[in-house]
Amino acid sequence: AELYIVSHEVNGVLHYGAVAVPEGLAPGSAPVMVYAHGGDGGVSVDGEFLLLLGLFPDLATEFVFVVPSFRDEPLSYAGQTWKSEGPPSPWDQDVDDAFALIDVAAGLTPAADPSRIAILGMSRGAGVGMLMSARSPAVKRRQTHGRSPRGRLPQAPLKLRRAFRPAGYRPPCHEKDRCPDSPPQSVNGYPFARGF
Description:
The protein is an alpha/beta fold. It is built from five helices and twelve strands. The chain has helices at residues 45-55, 57-60, 92-108, 124-135, 160-163; strands spanning 2-10, 13-21, 30-36, 43-44, 64-68, 74-77, 80-83, 112-122, 139-145, 165-166, 186-187, 190-191. The strands form three sheets. It has a seven-stranded mixed sheet. Strands 4-6-7 form a three-stranded mixed sheet. A two-stranded antiparallel sheet has the order 11-12. Helix 3 crosses helix 4 (124-135). The longest helix has 17 residues, at 92-108. It is globular and about 40 Å long. The two termini are 21 Å apart.
């Protein structure tokens, strides 16, 4: 895979992000997956993002990945750090930054298909993912992770790809005892849908 650290402007503000492109993909064959990090301390490409790809190596060969830093946050890789400009703007401008980085990826590699977007969002990034799916029909799947109502962090599903659910997916029933005829709606508490 090739990894690019890119800079571009979003509404006049300098923004940094990473784009990871697997080798050997045919033009237009790969959906774009956004890794929307949690918190407000920026994102480490060689830390959390490459760790994620190491845990799910099959994902690393099927998607073009984009990893945005958000406004006023750093993106780090291999001991270097780049800081996106602009005042922090959780969630609104974060969404703009992520969509702009998808456009950069589509211009960088012909393999990227920006009409098929998946989002993996953690905490703050979960909110970004939900807003992205509300703004664009190109968002086909999202998996968001945040604090549960009980204040615990849920466990990640064993097969992340199976856990991606269609944007806007709402289970028909939240209480399994009241919906005995419904198919299972979750795995370890996560809503799911098969396939991409």
